[in-house]
Amino acid sequence: xxxxxxxxxxxxxxxxxFSSVELTQAYxxxxxxHNADLNAYISVTDDIALAQAATADEHRAAGNASSLTGxxxxxxxxxxxxxxxxxxxxxxxxxxxxxxxxxVTARLADAGAVMLGKTxxxxxxxxxxxxxxxxxxxxxxxxxxxxxxxxxxxxxxxVAARLAAAATGTDTGGSIRQPAAFTGITGLKPx
Length: 191
Known about the structure:
The protein is of the alpha/beta class. It is built from six helices and four strands, in the order ααβαβαβαβα.
């Protein structure tokens, strides 16, 4: 099921082909298998993801599902997520636990999306290769000797390697577009 697009996964959830818990467990298992080689994630939030997935399944069963309810996504580790480490790829913020939720992550959570974890990035999103992170470089899943681009390279690698159905990123000067091109995925930048 992890070879499906976000739209196909949403349709599968709506039809009852699988539950959000089953889908989330499949992504978490794939992360366990491949993240050590790819370094796409800085933090994986297994317990939070499974709890959110169970809630999503309850909402879907009660007929209260949006188009994003139960879909497992990743967040670039520049977005604050309350109660979860937000490091911005920096040693300086290695132990920072966000006391509040960013607007983008709050809106996605309110829509029922499931947070798998926080993805790697160039430190403070200042770079174009995802090599300057305190946590080490992220690898391009298609050729591990190459970079995935940056600064949203962890998010792009997570989606391309099917470690998440979708992921957030930021784009000041190409930090979504370049990693999307380097990893063969679609990057969307709101206007």
